[in-house]
Automatic annotation (TrEMBL):
Residues 243-344 form the HTH araC/xylS-type domain. This is Transcriptional regulator, AraC family. Keywords: DNA-binding, Transcription, Transcription regulation. It comes from Polaromonas naphthalenivorans (strain CJ2). InterPro entries: AraC_XylS_family_regulators, Homeodomain-like_sf, HTH_AraC, HTH_AraC-typ_CS. Pfam families: HTH_18.
Length: 347
């Protein structure tokens, strides 16, 4: 079902821009990180936690621009990452995949939002103050747009767009016209990526024009969009099983939780558990159990470990009783030893 019903054709070019921003001009902000959780904290005003999924050293880059009515950014992550995200209240987030990867090519894999797989013809959307989960592949780039709800509503009204706001708040994946998606990508690229080698800290010349361009690009996509609402009851049940499994593992982090134990606790067969994880997270339960504990151990080594606690103490806290195996698995996933992570924190 389309999101908009238009009483008259829209004249996008004649749309009056917002009043000029009063105060200091917003500036382009660029940051890099070599840890997934550090990277998650770099995005302003979001509540996030990232778990690294694929093996190797992590490198993340973020180019961000904040304006009075919106936040625009370009994010690149070198490894596959499971992201738990929550946008600031009274806003909408739009995720537009398809930015160039490090080879200058479009990523061949797509992200999942709450377990739902997007494709080349879709964008992602979630309202503010509502947690959602992303699973992004390795070498992945995405444009993000967060717009204040009231600003989007006012602009849509000025343009004659009748958006079903209740439907938009429930949506996760939107099918959009290719021309509108490409135009949005080009708008964002011009705004935050052109001249990025020498634009660090430079003010944006015209905030009003920048906000107008982004708002028009987003509404152009919404104007020709269709909500992908085909979520079966069986898929929602699989989502709930995966969420319950995660809660159980984190609630018993000092124990070596096994797949048979999870099956018993969740009252499902091993085959059902396997299907649930493959469908929602595209990994097996065994992989997930190992990844969530390794990422938890790394987080504690880097952030909350007191000087009196050793690497072995932290490993035991996360159910790793065979220290040599823990060290080997840790190095394979993160590209460094647990002791190297601890030294980074101490310095």
């Amino acid at each position: 079902m389309p999101l908009t019903s238009n009483p008259r054709p829209k004249d996008w070019a004649s749309f009056a821009p917002f009043a000029p921003f009063q105060g200091e001009s917003p500036r382009i902000r660029k940051v890099q990180a070599h840890d997934a959780d550090d990277h998650a904290r770099n995005l302003t005003a979001w509540e996030q936690r990232y778990d690294q999924v694929t093996r190797g050293p992590f490198h993340g880059t973020l180019t961000e621009l904040r304006m009075p009515a919106m936040q625009v950014f370009m994010e690149h992550t070198s490894q596959a990452v499971r992201q738990s995200c929550c946008v600031w209240p009274d806003a909408f987030w739009f995720g537009v995949p398809g930015g160039a990867n490090t080879a200058g090519e479009r990523s061949g894999m797509n992200a999942r939002i709450n377990g739902r797989l997007g494709d080349a013809d879709t964008i992602m959307v979630r309202p503010g103050n509502r947690e959602f989960e992303l699973l992004t592949p390795a070498d992945y780039a995405i444009y993000g747009i967060v717009i204040k709800r009231d600003s989007l509503l006012v602009t849509a009204s000025q343009l004659g767009c009748r958006i079903d706001w209740a439907q938009l708040e429930r949506a996760e994946v939107l099918h959009v016209a290719e021309s509108a998606r490409l135009a949005c990508q080009q708008t964002l690229a011009r705004l935050i990526l052109q001249g990025r080698a020498d634009s660090e800290g430079q003010p944006v010349a015209s905030v009003a024009c920048a906000e107008q361009a982004v708002m028009l690009a987003v509404l152009s996509m919404l104007d020709a969009s269709e909500v992908d609402s085909a979520v079966s009851n069986s898929f929602m049940r699989r989502q709930r099983i995966v969420a319950r499994a995660r809660d159980y593992v984190l609630g018993h982090r000092d124990q070596l939780v096994t797949v048979p134990e999870l099956c018993e606790r969740l009252h499902v067969s091993r085959r059902t558990l396997q299907y649930c994880f493959e469908d929602v997270l595209a990994i097996s339960p065994i992989q997930y159990l190992r990844l969530i504990r390794l990422n938890g151990a790394r987080r504690e080594l880097r952030e909350r470990c007191s000087d009196a606690r050793t690497v072995r103490d932290i490993a035991a806290d996360w159910g790793f009783w065979h220290f040599s195996q823990f060290s080997s698995d840790y190095r394979k996933l993160f590209g460094q030893s647990p002791s190297e992570s601890l030294r980074q924190r101490m310095h």
